[in-house]
Amino acid sequence: MSILSDLHTHSTASDGQYTPAELVGLAKERGLNTLAVTDHDTVDGICEAVLAGKELGVRVLPGIELSALEYHTFHILGYGIDPENPTLAELCRRMKARRNERTGRLLAFLQEKGVALTAAEVEAAAGGEIIGRPHFAQAMVRRGCVATNREAFDRYLDTEEYYQRVERGKPPVKECIAAIRAAGGMASLAHPYQIGIGDDALEKLAAELAGHGLEAIECYYPKHTPEQEAFYLYLAEKYKLYITGGSDFHGEKVKPDVKLAALELDLGWMTKTAWSGGC
Question: What does the pLDDT average to over 167-177?
Fold first, then answer.
């Protein structure tokens, strides 16, 4: 069942530019048949997106992107999750609390660096309950401290000093996978290149995660090189993982160079997931 899909997108429920309904509208304009809304550590936008999808004729796959402990940029995507599952809800609650606790420490860190942001400025950039690093970046751009979101990350928000002094606590990857599976979903390793480890280490990691219930790997992603893509497809075949792909779309104000994808993917695995949008 090959249809045009983007299985990695973000809305205002986490750190995206567009509301869940607006995001589905953009998918319709792009000619997509299926859209996965995979906000960071929250399921708050799922029902709005599903209802918009029913109205517009776009299948919305309820998803999430969970941040894991073991590496700085280590994310697990979940597809077909039940947003009311108590195990997943409790994990999201804890992760939201850790994000909120981080806000004060990050403001102090930036103040020390000469960037005098206020909590109100960051909250205004967020526009919702989840506050992420992109919102700090947007607030810095608005204040004129940096020219772009990318500069904010390169100088302040994605440095070793940031990770050592400020970064929030995250759950182990096994807990992320277990929570997705408890919610009836399928877990996929997001943008493997971002983990920043060599091929041998990544293959070892993929084998280990498959043993803990990982069922897919995001092979198609805008920043994957052809060589990386080929290697991830090899891992999928060797470890019997499904293939997923997406744009990681946040909106042009957040990631100016990233547009919604229109990937022709085999989504036969969707029959495995437990929840299809009962909002």
Answer: 93
CA distance 123 to 119: 6
Which residues lie closer than 8 Å to 122 by C-beta, 6 or more apart? 103, 107, 131, 135, 136, 139
* pLDDT given for residue 125 in this prediction: 87
Q: What is the per-residue pLDDT across 106-143, written as a single tens digit (0 to 9) for each?
A: 999 999 999 989 999 998 888 777 788 889 999 999 99
Predicted local distance difference test score (pLDDT) of residue 277: 59
Alpha-carbon span 179 to 121, nearest angstrom: 33
pLDDT in tens, 189-215: 999 999 999 999 999 999 999 999 999
Joined together, the tokens standing for residue 241 give 């993982």
Q: Which two tokens stand for residue 200?
A: 């041998």
pLDDT reading at 273 higher than 80: no
CA distance 190 to 247: 11
Pairing of strands 186-189, 216-220: parallel
Q: Is residue 78 a contact partner of residue 64, using CB atoms and an 8 Å limit?
A: yes
- Burial tier of 223 (Cβ tally within 10 Å: 0-12, 13-18, 19+): exposed
